[in-house]
Structure formats: C-alpha cells, structure tokens
Design brief:
The protein is of the alpha+beta class. The chain contains 4 helices and 6 strands; from the N terminus they run ααββββαββα.
Length: about 160
C-alpha cells in the first residue's frame, strides 16, 4: 500500500513540475510568450496583427530590425510556424545584394535570402516550427541571435566596397 501511495505522489509531482517547466516555454501558438521572452532578455517587442489577422512582432537585435511573423495560423490563432524576417533596401546596391544573396544561399546556413523588385529588395528569413509545448526561452533567444548574426553578415557583405 505504501509503495502505491509513494508512486502516486511521485507521479503527481512529476506532472506538476513538467507543467511548470512548460509554462515558461516559448511557442508561436501563444505569441505573447515570444513577446515575454524578448522582453525578459532586454529586447523591445511589439505584438500586432497583419491584415489577415495573423500575429506579427517587431523587434531589433544588434542594430538589425527584425520582424517575427507567425504563419500557418487558424483564424489568427494557433500558429505553428514562426519566421524571422529582415528586409533591406538594395536600390543603391543591387549588384552587391545579388552577389551577397547568391553567396548566402549557397552556404549551409539556417538563413536564406530572397530578392524581389529586380534585386532592389532583399529579404532574409529563417523558420522555426512549434507545437503547444514550444521550446525554452534560452533556445528561442539563441535562434533569434543566430538569425541576427547572419543578418549582420549580410549587411556587411552588401556595404563592402
């Protein structure tokens, strides 16, 4: 009898603590968890909605403006994908942007570059997939700072003379 009670108590504690650990996780299913993670780590974060009603967060890291877009949503909620997005105006450096984009896209990197408007606009992006459990705040911030690192490299490549 004592063994069953001990096992039940241990199981209840495991459930309690696993719920507490998950409560702090970051997930695009709950965009406010992303805002909280950013703010907890000293970043500004503004949660808004796109014209389609999907959540979008604006922030900045290391001088890079970054937009965090939630996609694969159901009526503006329960989004399962997050995209980190950086946008550059390449109007004055189309050839440099094209060259830098080609180099980035040929690397084994989590960040890719899309060119539009004949190379006048460059968009860097990286995806994160989520479920309701999410990932730790520390890992989320690591993904964000990794994205920012590649954005900085792209910026340097475009501004080189």
């Amino acid at each position: 009898m004592y063994g069953k009670q001990l096992a039940s108590a241990a199981f209840a504690l495991a459930i309690l603590y696993s719920g507490a650990a998950n409560a702090a996780n970051v997930t695009s299913v709950r965009p406010e968890s992303i805002v909280q993670a950013l703010q907890n780590n000293g970043y500004k974060a503004k949660l808004e909605k796109t014209s389609d009603g999907d959540p979008i967060i604006t922030t900045g890291v290391d001088g890079n403006n970054i937009v965090i877009v939630m996609t694969d949503c159901t009526k503006g909620k329960n989004c399962t994908t997050t995209e980190f997005v950086g946008i550059w105006d390449c109007s004055d450096s189309v050839e440099k942007c094209k060259k830098a984009a080609a180099e980035f896209n040929n690397q084994e990197s989590p960040v890719h570059v899309l060119l539009s408007d004949g190379g006048k606009t460059a968009t860097t992006y990286s995806y994160l997939l989520f479920d309701e459990v999410g990932i730790s705040e520390e890992l989320y911030i690591k993904n964000l700072t990794t994205f920012s690192h590649y954005n900085s490299e792209f910026s340097v490549a475009v501004s080189e003379k």
